[in-house]
C-alpha cells in the first residue's frame, strides 16, 4: 500500500471489508486515499452500526459501498459510488475468496485485470487440507465449522501452484506470491517464542 501511494495511487478499494479498521489505524494514508469500503449490503449495514457504537468518526475520504460479490458487478457498483475507473487503484480482498464460487472469483480476477496501469490488487486464499497439518489444519477446520454454523460455508480453496497457473490466463504484467517461506524469513525468523508463518492462508499481489 505504501509503495502504491508513493507511485501516485490515490484510490483504495477494500472488498469484503467486514469490520476492517484500516481507515482508523492508518489515518495518515486515508488523508491521501479515497477509500471505498465495500461488503455485502447486510454485512455493511452491521459494520456501520459497529463503527457508530464504538464512536468512530467517519473520515471524509471514506465511502461505503454495498455490493454482493456473487452478482459479479463490482466494477459497476464502485463506479456508481464514485470510483474513477480510469485512475490507478489499489484493491484488497482479504479473508474472502474461500466464501465465493469459482466463477465469482474469476469475475474479480477479470476486474483486477481491467484496472489501468499503476493499479495493484492483493488477495488471500486458503489452501486445501491435504497440504496442511498441525495447528494450520486445526485452525482451518475450526474456521470452516464456524462459517458453516453461521450460514457462510467455504466454497473455494486452491493449491498455490494451481492458483498461480490460473492467474496467468488473465494477462497480468506481474504476479507475486508472498509464500510462507518468504513471510518466515522476513517477519518471523528472529522470534524467540517459536511462532512461525502460517501456511493455511496465503497472499498474492497482481499488477495489471
The level of helicity is 25-40%
Beta-strand percentage? 15-25%
Instruction: Examine the coordinates and then state which fold CATH places here, giving the name of the CATH topology of the largest domain.
Output: Rossmann fold
- The total beta strand count reads 7
Topology:
Layout: H1 2-6, E1 11-15, H2 22-25, H3 27-32, E2 34-39, H4 41-53, E3 62-66, H5 74-80, E4 90-93, H6 102-114, E5 120-126, H7 134-149, H8 160-168, E6 174-178, H9 180-188, E7 201-207
Parallel strand pairs: 1-2, 1-4, 2-3, 4-5
Antiparallel strand pairs: 5-7, 6-7
Summarize the structure.
It contains nine helices and seven strands, in the order αβααβαβαβαβααβαβ.
Report on this model:
With 208 residues, the chain is an alpha/beta fold. The protein folds into two domains: 10-91, no CATH class; 94-208, Rossmann fold. 39% of the residues lie in helices and 19% in strands. It has helices at 2-6, 22-25, 27-32, 41-53, 74-80, 102-114, 134-149, 160-168, 180-188; strands at 11-15, 34-39, 62-66, 90-93, 120-126, 174-178, 201-207. A seven-stranded mixed beta sheet has the order 3-2-1-4-5-7-6. Helix 6 links the parallel strand 4 and strand 5. The protein is globular, with a radius of gyration of 17 Å. The mean pLDDT is 96.
Keywords:
208 residues, alpha/beta, Rossmann fold, seven-stranded mixed β-sheet, 19% strand, globular
Amino acid at each position: 500500500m505504501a509503495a502504491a501511494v508513493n507511485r501516485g495511487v490515490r484510490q483504495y478499494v477494500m472488498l469484503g471489508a467486514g469490520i476492517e479498521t484500516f481507515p482508523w489505524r492508518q489515518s495518515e494514508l486515508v488523508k491521501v486515499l479515497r477509500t471505498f469500503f465495500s461488503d455485502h449490503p447486510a454485512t455493511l449495514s452491521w459494520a456501520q452500526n459497529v463503527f457508530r457504537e464504538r464512536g468512530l468518526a467517519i473520515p471524509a475520504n471514506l465511502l461505503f459501498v454495498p455490493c454482493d460479490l456473487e452478482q459479479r458487478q463490482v466494477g459497476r457498483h464502485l463506479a456508481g459510488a464514485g470510483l474513477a475507473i480510469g485512475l490507478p487503484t489499489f484493491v484488497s480482498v482479504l479473508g474472502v475468496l474461500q466464501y465465493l464460487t469459482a466463477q465469482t472469483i474469476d469475475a474479480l480476477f477479470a476486474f483486477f485485470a481491467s484496472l489501468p496501469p499503476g493499479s495493484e490488487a492483493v488477495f488471500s486464499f486458503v489452501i486445501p487440507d491435504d497440504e496442511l497439518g498441525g495447528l494450520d489444519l486445526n485452525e482451518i477446520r475450526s474456521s470452516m465449522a464456524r462459517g458453516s454454523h453461521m450460514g457462510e460455508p467455504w466454497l473455494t480453496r486452491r493449491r498455490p501452484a494451481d492458483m498461480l497457473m490460473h492467474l496467468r490466463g488473465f494477462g497480468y504484467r506481474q504476479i507475486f506470491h508472498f509464500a510462507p517461506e518468504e513471510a518466515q524469513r522476513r517477519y518471523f525468523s528472529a522470534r524467540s517464542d517459536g511462532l512461525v508463518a502460517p501456511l493455511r492462508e496465503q497472499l498474492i499481489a497482481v499488477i495489471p
